[in-house]
Write a structure and sequence with these properties.
Keywords: Amino-acid biosynthesis, Arginine biosynthesis, Cytoplasm, Lyase. This protein is mainly alpha-helical. It contains 18 helices and six strands. The chain binds arginine.
């Protein structure tokens, strides 16, 4: 089949293999909305500038509206012979309105067209991701407030370190996601310049108004260098970098869910909404959703790496290599949105197992630091010495396999004679967390006020 858009240039159509490697319509049809919006803005601008007739522009805009409806209704026939979304739409426009369709491509090229479409798509996607991340933050902050006083073990090296609260742990993720959202907003701000009108690479001799199309498409301004405009894929890579880091955070959270919901930990209960049974082992409740959130990270980081490798050796300006920017980005963002939705669902679903958390919080001599701090405060001991004294008391407890609170005063005094029974008051888990009142610390009071701060900030945010 001969490519009708090239006119008579090729007497024979591209070989099947050429069509196979060249066509992008199977995936870039996803850009139809952005492509139509870009073309409508371009046509209106051309008419305003007197480059095409107002009546032609009207026909073009109306024809594109028809195409939008056709695509959304599923009645549009996509053709691989027409390569990509741009040519598919333009060709259908010609069928619909005839000659004026041929005027739409004045003063533009597919190079600036695809850059514009994809920027608009990435921008829309960033907005969707941001809204989803906000929902996740709300779910986490609400749960954190509810469980601000629920003690649990805090870990370093996955060894019991010091008791913390469940709310505090959840708020750590609210902070991470807050930074993720900040990175997406940074990327969005830098992305938001209009490449349309850069044409093939050198700009155009037609008196176009790039500020006009920028405004119509919600861009802050036109891009300032036509070569850069059609060569730049920073905006995708940067959005993918933000996505990668966000996915890493979701993955760490998912990993905690896997650990917490295991039979060995039993820190949280997940309902069967987000777990599956085993086909052979009836006792099992597998945290599949969390595992898949963890796994999606690979695809997302992979997409970023892949596009970086595609771009790294490309001379200016547009190269067809850049067509490879889309599939992976589509997949990565689809994966990210799914992962965020699953994480949010699991947060809403999970219930902390209070008794197990409390028991675990006290195990592993988790209040040893509180003992050392008491020695510093009550006996004015230098911290290094207190650490040493505490170590000897922990050794006694460990040897006898008892908790720190159960070490008799006489044994403590054998380690250091100045210790009094006031020490026992700091050795409980609840006392421990309540004492951590430094800014950002785990005390339930702090956690409640931090959760409230987030709840208020998130509620105040205007939805875009
Ligand atoms: N399908 C192409 C892409 O995604 C559109 C731009 C094609 N430009 C060109 N000169 N062949 O990159």
């Amino acid at each position: 089949m001969s490519n009708s858009m090239w006119g008579g240039r090729f007497s024979e159509g591209p070989a099947a293999i050429m069509e196979e490697i060249n066509a992008s319509i199977d995936f870039d049809k996803k850009l139809y909305r952005q492509d139509i919006a870009g073309s409508q803005a371009h046509a209106r601008m051309l008419a305003r500038q007197g480059i095409i007739g107002a009546d032609d522009a009207e026909k073009i805009v109306a024809g594109l509206d028809t195409i939008l409806r056709e695509i959304e209704a599923g009645t549009f026939t996509f053709s691989r012979a027409l390569e990509d979304i741009h040519l598919n739409i333009e060709s259908r426009l010609k069928e619909l309105i005839g000659e004026p369709a041929g005027r739409l491509h004045t003063a533009r090229s597919r190079n600036d067209q695809v850059a514009t479409d994809f920027k608009l798509w990435v921008r829309d996607t960033i907005d969707a991701v941001d809204a989803a991340l906000r929902e996740l933050q709300i779910a986490l902050a609400d749960k954190a407030f509810l469980h601000a006083g629920q003690v649990m073990p805090g870990f370093t090296h996955l060894q019991s370190a010091q008791p913390v609260t469940f709310g505090h742990h959840l708020l750590a993720y609210v902070e991470m996601i807050g930074r993720d959202r900040g990175r997406f907003q940074d990327a969005r701000r830098r992305l938001n310049e209009n490449p349309l009108g850069a044409a093939a690479l050198a700009g155009t001799s037609f008196p176009i108004d790039r500020f006009d199309t920028a405004k119509a498409l919600g861009f802050d301004r036109p891009t300032a260098n036509s070569l850069d405009s059609v060569s730049d894929r920073d905006f995708v890579i940067e959005a993918l970098a933000a996505a990668s880091l966000c996915a890493i955070h979701l993955s760490r959270f998912a990993e905690e869910i896997v650990i917490w919901s295991s039979a060995q930990f039993r820190f949280i209960k997940l309902s069967d909404k987000f777990t599956t049974g085993s086909s052979i082992m009836p006792q099992k409740r597998n945290p599949d959703a969390a595992e898949l959130v963890r796994a999606k990270t690979g695809r997302i980081i992979g997409a970023q790496t892949a596009l970086q490798i595609v771009m790294k050796g490309l001379p200016l300006a547009y190269q067809k290599d850049m067509q490879e920017d889309k599939e992976q980005a589509f997949d990565a963002f689809e994966s990210l949105e799914l992962a965020i939705a699953a994480a949010t669902g699991m947060v809403l679903d999970m219930e902390p197992e209070a008794a197990n958390l409390k028991k675990a919080a006290g195990s592993g001599f988790a209040t040893a630091t509180d003992l050392a701090d008491w020695l510093v405060r009550a006996l004015n001991m230098p911290f290094r010495e207190a650490h040493h004294v505490t170590g000897r008391i922990v050794a006694i407890a460990s040897e006898r396999d008892i908790e720190l609170t159960k070490v008799p005063l006489a044994d403590m005094q054998a380690v250091h004679p100045a210790i009094t029974d006031a020490v026992y008051s700091v050795l409980t888990v609840d006392k421990s967390v309540r004492s951590r009142t430094s800014y950002g610390g785990t005390s339930p009071k702090n956690v409640r006020s931090q959760a409230k701060r987030w709840q208020n900030a998130l509620a105040r945010e205007k939805r875009r």
